């Protein structure tokens, strides 16, 4: 088929149980950025933490050559699979997709593109940036040379820090999309979180009693690097 319009790419029927992650503004911005920038046609793609498959379906419709899709439990992965199977019917291409229950980057293979909306505010880690930092340090082990890492994050997770650390770790970085929006109710329910974000430069805006965060989709391309012979 020809190049689908972003509207067709984003039109999908998703369902999930109480335990599944329902798409939030983070996921919606990532979907929009992906729909407007085809980064995957003819490419092998790894998607971490696919949730209800909102990005999986989009990437398959954009002509990803093959996808490996992960979730933390087999049950959540089953939600991803059933949504993909229901939405990838004619005229869309037959999905070439492997589903793996896997803990973050602990999976096999190398791919042209790695895409994810990483856990952050409810990451369950003391360092809420854990999954972002893990990507910055270790995604190269899952990428082919010149591979691309794409993820979305909040300003409260310190976007400038992510860009700086990506560049320090050998990536050329560009911003694909940004959006601003009000805090979600559950942010206010975690006093530790509300305290932590005070220390993040440009983490949020507070105007007339209204808190606003900025979401950013980063696209980072691995640059060539050869370690010196003396490295050990
Ligand atoms: C922020 S949600 C994003 C879900 C979906 N991709 C979206 O954008 O709507 C993060 C997802 O990562 C999954 N997840 C959490 N910890 C994980 C881990 N260690 N390895 C793989 N996936 C994980 C969660 O189950 C959840 O579906």
Short description:
By secondary structure, this protein is an alpha/beta fold. It contains eight helices and eight strands; from the N terminus they run H-H-E-H-E-H-E-E-H-E-H-E-H-H-E-E.
Helix-strand blueprint:
Blueprint: H1 6-10, H2 25-36, E1 44-48, H3 54-61, E2 66-71, H4 74-87, E3 97-101, E4 111-116, H5 130-138, E5 143-154, H6 159-168, E6 171-182, H7 185-188, H8 191-196, E7 205-207, E8 210-222
Parallel strand pairs: 1-2, 1-4, 2-3, 4-5
Antiparallel strand pairs: 5-8, 6-8, 7-8
The chain binds S-adenosylmethionine (SAM).
S-adenosylmethionine (SAM) is lined by residues 21, 23, 27, 48-51, 54-55, 70-72, 76, 103-104, 117, 119.
General shape? globular
Largest sheet: 8 strands, mixed
Mean pLDDT: 96
Number of helical segments with 4 or more residues: 8
Distance between the termini: 50 Å
Tell me the number of strands: 8
SSE pattern:
HHEHEHEEHEHEHHEE
Quickly count the domains.
Answer: 1
- Strand-pairing-aware structural class: alpha/beta
Helical residue percent band: 25-40%
Poorly predicted spans: none
Q: Give the amount of beta strand, in percent.
A: 25-35%
Compounds present? S-adenosylmethionine
Per CATH, the superfamily is Vaccinia Virus protein VP39
User: Which CATH class?
Assistant: Alpha Beta
Give the oligomeric state of the chains in this entry, treating copies of one chain as homo and distinct chains as hetero: single chain
CATH topology: Rossmann fold
| Backbone CA Rg | 18 Å
